[in-house]
Amino acid sequence: MTTVTRFGAFLPKDTDGNVAQLHGIGVWRFGDTWYAYGENKVNGNLFQGVACYTTKDFDAWENHGIVLDVQEDGSALGADRIGERPKVLHCPKTGKYVMLIHAETPGYGYAHIGVAVADDPLGPFAFRTTITWRGYLSRDIGVFQDSDGAAYVMSEDRDHGTHIYRLSDDYLTIVEDVACERATDYEYGLESPTIVKKDGLYYWFGSKLTGWSTNDNMFSTATDLHGPWSEWRLFAPAGSQTFDSQVDIVVPLGDDPYDSDEFLFIGDRWMKDDLGDSPIVQLPIVIGDGKASIAWDESYEGSTHR
Ligand code: DGJ
């Protein structure tokens, strides 16, 4: 069980005192260490590589540098492209660490998933290719690894909704469109998708589509990833705009990620004119019995709104 005591809205810093470039954070525990991957946004929105940090407590972050480099000109992850929401899975079949990342052009028209592979969670990751399912758009992504080792990538597709796709056994490609959902009374599926499982119930979180602005994020539940998925409901006070953040990931803190009593919510509070200095919003999230909720305590750092 990992104990987290730092909550609120703040800039995570590395052990050298620099802002940890953990925007669009993906985080998973390998062994007894948490490995986090983030968008390096020091110089704006174009791709500057994926940064990696480790932590034991979600407070002190050790910087391991860029683990997926900017690729050569013409590549889907070259210096004139965008890379968002890097997520890393450890594949039990191959033993490899597989990074999935939203690969974009500046107009957000490319909408593919980049795939990169490493032998070590600290990289270096070798960029392999980009994938989509049947050419569908794939904007914001998240990943979920189930207790049976099957892995999934959730992917927002403006035309159809947000998909849950099952990955192949080597996690390198998509083999099944498991579900495709639009949010309740909303014309789109939700972006920034993330899923956790507790007591056999899947909880799927996401944000409405408001660019870099925040909104009241929602969640849905199901006993099977194929669905049926429940109606989408709030998990933060209505009108708080999820305490002015966009859900990025919900992290099970227990030793067994599928039987955790405690979860951590991490969201982005994007500063569109200074993305590299965008704070995170880090809060306990109570999950169980089909419910989920975050609350703000006056002891927390920062404020509920920017
Ligand atoms: C919302 C997405 O969640 C972010 O990752 C980013 O793509 C912005 N839109 C860009 O406007």
TrEMBL record:
Pfam families: Glyco_hydro_43
Segment forming the signal sequence: none
Domain of life: Bacteria
Keyword field contains Hydrolase: yes
Keyword hit for 4Fe-4S: no
Keywords annotated in UniProt: Glycosidase, Hydrolase
Family listed: Belongs to the glycosyl hydrolase 43 family.
Record-given protein name: Family 43 glycosylhydrolase
